[in-house]
Amino acid sequence: MSQATFDQAPGDVPAAEGGGSSGLLVYTIGLLLALALTALSFWVANTQLLWAPGIPLGLAVLAIAQMGVHLVFFLHITTGPDNANNSLALAFGVLVVTLIVAGSLVIMDDLHMRPGGTMDMPARGT
Fold it and tell me: Where does the chain show beta strands of DSSP type E?
């Protein structure tokens, strides 16, 4: 029969398995990756070496990579069985934000709101 310990939260590494320097190494790697992706984003936005219409897509890819680095290295979201609730909460949050942004875009399009602050409202009585 296995011995269960109830004094640890799911996903916690027992003190016997994880060393003190291991956590510092993970955070340092995450910090270096985040700094590199940030610097690369500024370079992409200010360089003339890239095809101009591809710059927004490149920035979007770098932003998604930045979110991945933060989720894995700082929030410790993994696909392990101990993190099922965290993954579901993250997926629900992404769903809610997507619905809010998409709904706002649909409403703005329905009201004919255009960039620059003008609203093209249909004329009354026509």
Answer: 113-114, 118-119
For 20-58, how does the pLDDT look when each residue is reduced to its tens digit (9 = 90+)?
567 899 999 999 999 999 999 999 999 998 899 999 999
pTM of the model: 0.63
Phi/psi for 39 (5° steps) reads: -65, -40
The CA distances from residue 95 to 23, 26, 45, 100, 124, in Å, are: 31, 29, 29, 9, 38
User: In terms of C-beta density within 10 A (0-12 exposed, 13-18 middle, 19 or more buried), how is residue 88 classed?
Assistant: exposed
Contacts 24+ apart (CB under 8 A), 75-83: 76/11, 80/11, 82/10, 82/11, 83/10, 83/11
Q: What distance in Å separates the CA atoms of residue 68 and residue 90, rounded to the nearest whole number?
A: 12
Q: Strand, helix or coil at 70?
A: helix
Q: Is the separation of the CB atoms in 120 and 112 below 8 Å?
A: yes
43-51 contacts, C-beta under 8 A, 24 or more apart:
none
